[in-house]
Amino acid sequence: MALPELTTEVLRRLPGILPMGAVFFAAVDPATLLFTAAVAQEPLAEASPLFRDNEFGRGDVNKFATLARRGDPVTSLDRAICRRRADSARYREIMAGLGLVDELRAALITGHECWGVLCLHRTDAEAGFSAQDLAVLRKIAPHLAEGLRRSVFR
Question: Hey, which bits of 33-131 come out as E strands?
Fold first, then answer.
């Protein structure tokens, strides 16, 4: 499946699997982890330059590059900072103003290479993402990674 079709299917199916307010989904270069193609739903799309600056231009918690190097490449912002959201510059400076309460991030790895990243945002669940939500994303993340890898080598 080509990348545009894969992206369309992921964005169509994800809300039926995990409740969320918005999605960011990107293919990355496995060597550099730089985004090669990305889609962001509102309100993320409008704030994309701020999120990119946070991801690549400054220190913060729960970065995609960090997730790609961990044994477990899936976690939420709340879990990474023990629900002390104000400890994250991304939360303070971007997410809170957009009404986003938590994010669930995954580095999409197949074999030993990261082929993409996924970030799901919650807008109305004060409790954030649950352990079950993380478990579901852990199950589907390798399949998304393989889909991204195959979209490059088809």
Answer: 35-40, 74-76, 102-110, 113-122
